[in-house]
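cache lookup: miss for this entity combination. No prior model stored, computing from scratch. Input as submitted by user K.M.:
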Amino acid sequence: MTTKLEVISNDEFVALVDAFADELLDLCQFFVSQIEGRLPDTERLFARLSYASKLVEDLLDYHGAKNNRQWYCYRELVASILNFSSAAFTMKHIVSRISFYEIGADEAFIFASQLVHRFLINTLTNLCQELIAETKKMGLKLSPPTLAREQFANLSSNRYLEFNILPQDLYDERQHIVRITTAYLNIVRDFELLGFYKRFPTGELRALIPSRINEEILRKYEMIIHNLQSSYDTYIGRDASRSEGSTFKALRDHISISLHLLELSGRLAHYFERHLYDVGRSGIYLEVQQLLARLVNTEFLLDAIINYAVFSCNEFLARGKSLAQSLLNQYIEHDEITVGVPVKLGFHSRPCMLVAKIVQHYGGQVEMIVAEDHFDASSILDLQWAGGKVQRENLSQVKFRGDARALADIAILAGINYGEDTMGKGIPLPPELSYLR
Amino acid sequence: MTGRSGQIDWYSGSTVYEQPRRLFWGGRCLEVLAVLSRGISPNGAFLKILAADQRCYRLDYDQQQDVWQIIPWG
């Protein structure tokens, strides 16, 4: 049974907002009163601003403020504060943790991180000022400020509690390491296909969102990376040998920084698309969109999303590949198989491509061994080079050595003459190799 | 971008990752030899650079106005 909606009078609603917005307005007044460099730049401040604005936003949305001429602007300002305080919380975490992450962060990245954080704080200042002005304009209650700097102590620290829990022997940890590093390599391969391996000039940024990158794509990757990190934390043990300086710690840090950059870019892309992107609004909607565009430096916002967050995420994910690869090769089960050469046509393009795709799918190292020579089986060119040798020496069999998972699939592929008949025409692949289609 | 009384030519075209290429200052075009330091200010950020005239300049970015200013420094 659904509850019937009733119209609430403006006076009643004012009383409700007064009751719920007190903490948000106190925080806004505190925020704008902390001029030039005196703001306690701490997670606690952004967290409180975030939850206080969320509470008011929910109140406004439950009562339909989005569709009300008197309340729409107020609602959009509250939503803007929610988005930017949440982004600032994430950004503060990045800025605080950079020096602890083993990700090879250079000076330019650290500087860019601080600059983006400064942008978020400046934007929040503008938004808080405007919300206070709107509160006065609407005749809402604005109590005298009560907050003091001491109430916003810093969360970050360089001190750690002693590592005094003995290493655990987790079930099937080896298999989980192989699974997680393989998943990492596949995620990176997909993310790289988005093409954010270079920075874009400011003038080109507006054309990229939402057509090439948008909230939906970023949130999807955020969820995928979040799941990967969660799986890592559940199934891979954290003994002392895997702390500072280890490949495990470095890989975990690359996953973590990528996740935070995706959280940031997803949140900001949502803000741009929902509040600033021109979707043909008119009337009050357009007026408020134009007001927000004056309070938020849109060019810098796009620069922060694409040239800082998405670009850096791509960079760190790519840098983590060698770590994942190294752990994968260390933990995979190694094997060796001997299989036949493709009948009649030998190792030409199609068989080479299918073998390379199998190896790339699993990520572990595999070599093709022809007589005494070893070839990288993840490379089509290497395989074709090997194919030439096979043909010259008139061999009927070759060996593959490396990742047992890939070898099992190569054996299946070899069993169907590498997916083609003797005339070179493609034949259906079995279900085990469906990922090659 | 226009400075206090000059212009800055950048490599990347991205404010977040600005890398100055040359300054147009005092009627001259000066190559940027090195970025000496970068910092954050309440209004935005700044870069201290060494230019081809062997002088140092501070390039101040005002985020609210989205403008850079060139200030001879040191």
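stored under new cache key. The CA atoms of residues 247 and 326 of chain A lie 8 Å apart.
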